[in-house]
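no rush on this but wanted to send it before i forget. theres a chain ive been looking at and ive put its sequence and its fold in token form underneath. please have a look and point out which stretches look like helix strand or loop to you. thanks a lot i owe you, the record is right below:
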Amino acid sequence: MRFLFLLIPVISFAQNQTKIIAFLDPDNDLLEIEQTLTVTNDSNEDWDRVVLLDWANSFSSKETALANRFAEDFKNRFQFANDEDRGKTVISTDNGSKDYTIHRLDDQQDIVELLLDTPLKPKESKTFELKYSVQIPEDDFTNYGKTSKGEYNLKYWYLHPANFVDGSWEYYSHKDLDDFYGKTIDFTISLHTPTNLFATSNVPLTLYAPTGVRNSYLFEGKSYSQADLYLRNTNDQFKTFKTNDLLVTTDIKEDDLAPEMKQLLLNKITGFLTDKLGPYPHDNLVVSDRFYRESPVFGLSSLPEFINPFPAGFTYEVRMLKALTRKWLDEGLKTNPREDYWIASSIAVFAMMDYQQIHYPDLKIAGKFSKVWGLRSFNAAKLGFNDRYALLFLNTSRLNLDQAITTPADSLVKYNQELGIPYKAGVGLLYLDNYLQDDALDKTIKELYAASSSKTISTADFRGVLDAYTDQDINWFFEDYIRSHVRMDWKIRSIKKEDDSVTVKLKNKSGRMLPVPIYTLDNDSIVSTRWLPAFARDTVVTLSRKRANRIALNYKQLIPEFSQRDNYRTLKSLPSLSRPLSLKLFKDVEDPTKTEVFLIPDLGYNLYDGVSIGARFYNGNLLPKPFRYGINPTYGTNSGKLIGSFGFAYSKPIEDRSERLYQVRYGAGANTYSYADDLLYRRVSTFLNLSYRPEDLRSNKRQTLSFRNILVNRDRDESNPVNEPDYNVFSINWNHSDPNLKRFFSYRVGAEISGKFGKLNGSAEWRKLFKDNRQLNFRFYAGTFLYNDTGDSDFFSFALDRPTDYLFDYNYYGRSEDSGLFSQQLIVAEGGFKSQLEPAFANRWITTLNSSYSIWKYIYAYGDVGLVKNTTVAPKFVYDSGIRVNLLQDYFELYFPVYSNNRWEIAQQDYDQKIRFIVTLDINTFVNLFNRRWY
């Protein structure tokens, strides 16, 4: 069976072809491969090497580009996996030939060079005999590899030749971006598996020979960009449907949908794609559920049937539309998917939007829920299905994290790579298509698709073909829209009404040179549309008033504009409020025609107020916005008092990223809660934050310069008077952080000035995750008083283990407790000690060093040392040590003291009262934990 493919005569020879004999050893998750690779020099230059993509070897260590990408995205599964679960490629150096040498790049372990003794001349071919084994990784890392069921989904499992373009080899490392870029080659694959595994491939099956020992397969196909394999425990997981255009083989399921309905839907989709793009380049299209999940229809296609708001079969249809469109473009439109990522992704979104508009023009994003009482009043329920694209892109624009569409895929933050840029690019093609008002864009896409069978399509090709199909100016799209990240924003500055016309003065707030449509409306009906050519700052246009009572810019939202709140003006003689007030429960998508106030129930807890019940009034909707305010009145069930907070903040994004300052934020706020039984504090603060971020948005480095002024007023307790019930503190801080799964580093320096004291303090923290998965943590803190006139009180002193938190910055659940469970809450600040030692405070200066080292998984040994200096007393050396249980770093941890200045604490009475804990209940803190992967 090893030479199964010899039974079938080879009737044609391509320029680039490979013959692979592969045996699967499931006991060791190993593929033993013999590969014959024939490569033809299709350039005009001599080749002194041939470059192969060995992306299976990107799992071989914790230092590859793929491993570093996982660390940047805080994905820890790969880091903590066993070596045998990660995968690798081992190539035999005995190649049976003396005319080339096999070499793996030192800085790119998934790239192999075949160094030729004699250069390969143009039009000449050379055959290489390669023998190697591939250790298959677990599928936890990229969704490809060995599954928990003992099945295999294999991608990038063999050696594939790279592309030679414009005088050089084009190649890059695997970064889990689904952007494999190799030569189109002819495949002959002889695959041998155990009898309990059945194979499916995108390369056509020409022979299947099961025996009592193994299953043997012969797959043969011409002009494929890659060969995928799916090895399953049963032979019926993949189903084949015959459409009018081709065969579709898939394991994407919809159990409640009859096969006949699936057949009709697939016929509809393939017919549309054939008409929209061109015929699929092969007779059989194989698309797996794993392939779909690489880029799913987020939030819409995985709803359980009992709450599915869409028509019968629609979720299956939209999933297949997404998967088939991607596969159609992967095989039929050859681009550099990393450098020109936007081309295929924009065409895919544009095609799907067109499909939805043709077949479901009235479908809302909420489906049938858009007609349900209580839900239909929400703006989100009124959005069309295609409106989600602009909405999801605008999220990054509002966060000032937008990136140019032409940014290489591996330089995009995860959200932009998955959603932001494809949606912005797809909406951009819709914008361009409406501007051109002809079929030039559709003709361009079809021509590019057809031409890519013989060449790689670039941005320049796209522009050249489109320019040949239209006489209109398209420079704005290729020079501005796809190359700039600056937000797009216009406004109607003023209007001047005449009897039969209106003169409108417009302002371009971004300065971007883009055309914009202006509309006259009769309520919500469009009377006229006029495209205005690009203008830099201000322009004036005169429109007819016939049948119109409103003027609007970008009314159909063809442009993903930063804000449309100033895009409307009324022409009525007695106008109402330009944006009438609207009060709504819960968050919603913004309605730019109204001034919206949202209301949401609010619950909180601290020991003294108990459960606080109330409401929050705020202007924040589902997308971030520059100006935000919140009013949060609540009632404490224990204290019986009205408590709560209010505040406002304005964020000014800085879009010139060469300056690194990316946001200026300022505002004010006030709150009042109980700080002890029957005692309230009132806090008023103002702030100014200057936030810095590298021009490379994928960098996790952050810097902030902050200024604050805090005024605190506290109720007096006659039985326990405090020395400073009222005080005002001005603080300034510089924060720098550079987090990563493998290495974390941050430092902070700051000063506080008040009437009776002045302080300088600083801290630095360093964490390192080693190759053996052990982690070492260090934290250093130092603080000194410039002056201290607070007398005997330690309220403003540096704390060794439990800061008094006189600025009310920390989320203490029982801030005034000195015994009991709530006194054991640990917030690692100032001294950062875990044991309660004497002296507990320092009114002159303090220095401490906190450290921990992992013993086994989430069990750590910790130790703290420090010097505490008080007035008239010599500095005292303090130390403690113990066991730390780190269930979730900085969010859920337990500390068990063992030995300290107090001696063997573990052997002392009431040991349970010495245990310290970190518990974070703030939902926003947890959200940020997951957001760091996306932004």
Summary: Residues 221 and 545 are 64 Å apart (CA to CA). The first strand starts at residue 17 and ends at 25. Residues 414-436 form the longest helix (23 residues). The radius of gyration is 33 Å.
